[in-house]
Amino acid sequence: MAAPLLLSDLYIYPVKSLGGIRLTEATVEPRGLRHDRRWLIVNARNQFMTQRQTAAMAHLKVAPAYNGFLLSHQQRPELLPLYVPFEATPERTLFVTIWDDMVFAWRGKPACDAWLTEALGEECKLVYMSDMVRRDVEPEHNPEGQLVSFADGYPFLLIGQESLAELNARLAEPVAMDRFRPNLVFSGGEAFAEDGWADFQIGDTTFRAVRACGRCVLTTIDQATARKNPAGEPLRTLATYRTEGSKVMFGQNVTSGGRGTVRVGDALAVVSHKA
């Protein structure tokens, strides 16, 4: 008898491209899980920064704190941890660029900018997306007008544990799930079963798997050391059997039909499959 589908892990990433926080429950909101990727680091030109270009961002760790989180640098203990609230205030504002979008954002405290500039060795600013901002999911996959935070393109990323296990069976050195930065991880089912899902529920909350997620060089960065794999793994191996067109696919981009609370251990039920 097949193992039941269960939500096995939940993650939020308060700052885009920095470390995640593992949760036991999370609130589903129109832009994704509450507090997920609402903060963004931008450079001197107000352009978004990620580990794709700045692998040293993997050295910055995120830990939960009261009504916010702590940033620390794992290689520089002299940099005292920085407290950042989950939400900012509209005292200072600017426009920032993320992919093809220009987004109105609220500035963090000057101390945050100074800390990140010192930590990353270049001028940085920390900015916040308020509920007043409208950033839409990719229009060709967004008939319902879904919103997204500072995530790349979709509110949620779903990956099955069996999919990672199948990949690791092909690798000389297994990789952790944090290489792929999911929000929703489930157990049960076969490897890559999620590729065929359309509508599904976690507990009482409805979701839709919109399309597979194209992966990039970020997956080759060890999140514990900030070092890129010299052989390009696991992307190189994934490319041998998970390539569609010019993209290497792993995980499903997901939207949600409403609000709710999801908890680790919740049952996952597939409602419909892709045509």
Written overview of the protein:
With 275 residues, the chain is mainly β. The protein has a single domain, classed as PK beta-barrel domain-like (M1 Pyruvate Kinase, Domain 3, Beta Barrel), CATH 2.40.33.20. It is 9% helix and 35% strand. The chain has helices spanning 110-120, 161-168, 235-239, and strands at 6-12, 21-23, 25-29, 32-33, 39-42, 60-65, 68-73, 82-85, 93-98, 101-107, 125-128, 156-160, 184-187, 199-202, 205-215, 243-244, 247-256, 260-263, 268-270. A hairpin with an 8-residue loop joins strand 1 (6-12) and strand 2 (21-23).
CATH topology heading: M1 Pyruvate Kinase, Domain 3
Q: What top-tier CATH class fits best? A: Mainly Beta
Low-confidence sequence ranges: none
Assign the structural class, choosing from mainly alpha, mainly beta, alpha/beta, alpha+beta, or little secondary structure: mainly beta
DSSP summary: helix tally: 3
Question: Mean pLDDT across all residues, rounded?
Answer: 96
> Mind telling me the C-alpha Rg?
18 Å
Number of strands: 19
CATH homologous superfamily label: PK beta-barrel domain-like
Which architecture name does CATH use? Beta Barrel
User: What is the H/E string?
Assistant: EEEEEEEEEEHEEHEEEHEEEE
Content of β-strand:
35-45%
What is the end-to-end distance? 26 Å
Morphology call: globular
Largest sheet: 9 strands, mixed
Q: Helical amount among residues, as a percent range?
A: under 10%
Number of domains: 1
